[in-house]
Amino acid sequence: MASTAKSTTSTPGSGVFLAWAIHVYAWFLGSVVLVLANGIHLFLPPWCVIPIAGWAIGVGIHGAVTYFIVDKLNGNFKLLADTYILKFVPKPLMENLEAKMK
What we know:
The protein is mainly α and 102 residues long.
């Protein structure tokens, strides 16, 4: 008899990569806002470059950590959640989320 249980692992296109993609999208939109705000003053001085570059470094680090964690765990995102996320999220909250996902 075939099992109808859901798989405990995610595909590489979900979870961790989605969080990083949202971070990149937020960086892009924030950068546009900063450039527009700096444009009001005719880019004199071009102060928007420094926060955009700083945030880009953070996005790059986030991407590198995401890549290496996923590579180390061979795509086993259940293990990623069990190893890293559950250390910081209270157990009753996780049980509530798991119940809602069923």
